[in-house]
Amino acid sequence: MNRRVFISCIACSFLFADARGHNSNRTSQIQQSRRERWEGDLKEAMWYVKLNLKKVRCDLCPRKCVVDDRERGFCGVRENRDGIYYTLVYSNPCAVHIDPIEKKPFFHFLPATLSFSIATAGCNIECAYCQNWEISQRRPEQTENIYMPPKRVVELAKHYGCKSISFTYTEPVVFYEYMVDTAKLARHANIRALMVTNAFIEPKPMQEACKVLDAVKVDLKAFSEEFYRKICRGQLKPVLKAIEVIKSTGTWLELVVLIVPKLNDSPTEIKQMCNWVKTNLGSDVPIHFSRFIPMYKLRNLPPTPVETLERCHDIAKEIGLRYVYIGNVFGHPAESTYCPNCNSVVIQRMGYKTSISGLRGNKCAKCKFTIAGVWA
Ligand code: SF4
User: Fold this and answer.
1) What is the CATH number of the domain that holds 314?
2) Could you tell me if residue 294 is inside a domain?
3) Taking the model in full, what pTM does it have?
């Protein structure tokens, strides 16, 4: 554990104590019932339409759930009450941590800074290898939550010296209203707002969210509809559309692809994916090929061999992508950023230890080539 992570852990323990104390005072003051406590601040949802017979249709993500009165959508965190659709997770995070920004991972956005990171229960897909399934595949009444309205999130981020707030761990699409309101307040406080997402969202809400977000990291699960359907209970096509929307708004974008042995690692599929990235997003969007570790419902598979990740890396470089990384392999040379012009090390990484001595402003210190990213 390096010094910065150690300090973060200390800060987090304190933070949790602080936030829980805040919650228990508030609880005793207004004598909330158990049911009200897990609901956070009950708030009407955005992006839905009212139908006949008190039904609603949620237009936030491509599932477009049609929900009867007293029922919830697929994600389990949005509920129809008398024909009004509510989010149950506003101000109601179940995970709060202070992380190095490299953990998200963002490699071209304010490197070596801390990010105040929050998540609520719920997700709108179900990846068979989800590393956070104990909160993403739960309803808010099944997780341990703390009361933390947007204003408090921003206050704490500032207090702990974080340059950004990350909406992460589970799926921020399902806590959209909480994310957007927090991001708006963060901007006034000169703190950046970052979304770590599966991008399984309708184009319009994605476009609106980008007005208050500074960077988005998308987990592109694979480049086949079959993988999305069978392994994630999602769809590829709307994800690609949402990624294009993010890029078109000028919001900083990075991609992560978790390479699962035999399921999404074929050279043909990786070539198709990288060609799509180059054609539709350009060569400067960083892409991280990350190592799979057996998890959740996919414990029968081995971890991804490092050679497979290196093959993906080489394919992406041959196609012309400039910033290609290998993730979850401690100490691998492809954790670092190299200048696409002179190949010198611009940012050196070893796990979460980061040295930016090869960067001057936004340029390579050696040849002055402009390195794409948000550096200050
Ligand atoms: S956000 Fe949730 S309720 Fe809305 S369409 Fe997606 S899964 Fe259904």
Assistant:
1) 3.20.20.70
2) yes
3) 0.91
Mutate to test the pocket of ligand 1, among 48, 65, 68, 204 (most ligand atoms within 8 A of CB): 65
Long-range CB pairs of 362-366 (<8 Å, 24+ gap) are 364/339, 366/339, 366/342
Q: Which atom of ligand 1 approaches the CA of 45 most closely?
A: 4
Cα of 66 from ligand 1 centre, angstroms? 9
State if residue 286 touches ligand 1 by the CB under 6 angstroms criterion. no
| First-residue to last-residue Cα distance in the chain | 26
Task: Find, among 326, 282, 324, 286, the residue nearest to 306 by Cα.
Answer: 326
Q: Residue 187: what residue type? A: R
Q: Is 75 in the pocket of ligand 1 (CB under 6 A)?
A: yes
Q: Is residue 268 situated within a structural domain?
A: yes
The predicted pLDDT at position 16 comes to: 42
Number of structural domains in the chain: 1
For the segment 306-325, the average pLDDT, to the nearest whole number, is: 98
**DSSP letter string, 131-146:** TTHHHHTS-GGGS---
Which residue, 370, 75, 338, 368, is CA-closest to 200? Answer: 75
Q: Tokens representing 362? A: 């936004």
pLDDT at 20: 36
CA–CA distance, 13 with 72 (Å, rounded to integer): 34
User: Residue 201: which of 342, 323, 46, 315 has the closest Cα?
Assistant: 46
Taking the C-alpha atoms of residue 55 and residue 86, their distance in angstroms, rounded to an integer, is 13
The pLDDT of residue 41: 85
pLDDT in tens, 1-45: 333 333 333 334 434 433 333 333 333 333 344 445 567 789 999
Asked if the structure places residue 192 within a domain, the reply is: yes
Helices 203-210 & 236-248 angle (0-180, nearest 10): 30
Domain coverage including residue 247: 95-335
Residues in the chain: 376
3-state secondary structure of 44: strand
Would residue 164 count as lying in a domain?
yes
Among residues 43, 146, 135, which one has the least CA distance to residue 88? 43
Rounded CA-CA distance 78/101 in Å is: 29
